[in-house]
From TrEMBL:
Gene3D superfamilies linked to this entry: 3.40.190.290, Winged helix-like DNA-binding domain superfamily/Winged helix DNA-binding domain (1.10.10.10)
Organism: Luteimonas salinisoli
Classification via CDD domains: PBP2_CrgA_like_5
Protein name: LysR family transcriptional regulator
Gene Ontology molecular function: DNA-binding transcription factor activity; sequence-specific DNA binding
Residue intervals of the HTH lysR-type domain: 3-60
Family the UniProt entry places it in: Belongs to the LysR transcriptional regulatory family.
Keywords, comma-separated and alphabetical: DNA-binding, Transcription, Transcription regulation
Top-rank lineage group of the source organism: Bacteria
Biological process per Gene Ontology, one example term: DNA-templated transcription
PROSITE patterns from the UniProt entry: HTH_LYSR
Length: 298
């Protein structure tokens, strides 16, 4: 069977974007060209790859199978070709999937300084807390806590050790007192986090005498937005829980009070991670070098 390999590149763009229009924009072609290309690929293979509606695009079972089989090899080939002709400054689209709690990456200075240092690179940052397959998702790299990164990935430290904090506004503490042990939290008004509506709220994690344990707080307010958690706590709405660096400036200003610190030891921090491969694009090497320089400047 012979066919245009560019059709596979087009198919991957549609699969990754879940949209003909977004795929067309990413490839710099018309939506009609994308639609016709997918139809040509389906006709060649004799099977439907994409289900189209007026609102969405979904892969069929055959499309999902093809995506799993060709995604990694085509990304490897693309990286090798880019490296072969990449003799100038780093350039191209660099896609990074970042956890919503990675404050060091998302705060602004890191991204701004990288953009200034590498004007030829377009940095596309997707903020998500969902489990992610970098290769299948079309991402060059990700940023996650070290404990959740697969062992076959290359990981470069973005931060030092991190620590969770339970925090509340002084007005809440004055009105309701300070919990003396994490299990006392069940008697307090808490502000919780869940990644999505269909998932259970995050259980707050503590450690006592070297043993980890969780507290299933009865959160009166639950959200997937860290800003809602922070603002509700600042307004005296209860105790919330999260990474220390996300609350540091408000703790230092006295607007939030840290609680239960004896039960919250440090743990491995955030890492920039990416698949191990021989031909690493210069744009990715530039990001890795920037991470290292950024850490050295702190």
């Amino acid at each position: 069977m012979q066919f245009d390999l560019n059709l596979l590149r087009l198919f991957l763009a549609v699969a990754d974007a879940a949209s003909f229009r977004a795929a067309a924009d990413a490839l710099g072609v018309t939506r009609s060209a994308v639609s016709q290309g997918i139809r040509r690929l389906e006709d060649t293979l004799g099977v439907a790859l994409v289900q189209r509606t007026t609102r969405s695009v979904r892969l069929t079972e055959a499309g999902q199978r093809l995506h799993r089989q060709v995604s990694a090899p085509l990304h490897t080939v693309a990286a090798a070709l880019e490296e072969a002709v990449d003799d100038g400054p780093p350039r191209g689209l660099l896609r990074v999937n970042v956890s919503s709690i990675a404050e060091r990456f998302l705060a602004g200075p890191f991204v701004a300084s990288f953009a200034r240092a590498h004007p030829g690179i377009t940095l596309d940052v997707t903020v998500s807390d969902d489990p992610i397959d970098l290769v299948a998702g079309g991402f060059d790299a990700g940023v996650r806590l070290g404990e959740v990164i697969e062992q076959d990935m290359v990981a470069v430290p973005l931060t030092g050790p991190q620590r969770q904090l339970a925090v509340a506004a002084p007005s809440y503490v004055q009105a309701h007192g300070v919990p003396q042990h994490p299990r006392d939290l069940v008697h307090h008004r808490c502000i919780g986090w869940r990644p999505a509506p269909e998932t259970a709220p995050y259980r707050w994690e503590f450690s006592e005498d070297g043993r980890d344990f969780e507290v299933d707080v009865n959160a009166q307010v639950t959200t997937n937005d860290l800003r809602v958690m922070l603002r509700t706590a600042l307004a005296g709405g209860g105790i919330t829980f999260g990474l220390e660096e996300n609350y540091r400036q408000w703790v230092e200003s006295g607007q939030l009070v840290p609680l239960l610190q004896d039960w919250l030891p440090p743990f491995a921090g955030f890492f920039l991670y990416f698949p191990s491969r021989h031909n690493q694009p210069r744009k990715l090497r530039a990001l890795v070098e920037h991470v290292r320089k950024f850490r050295d400047l702190e």
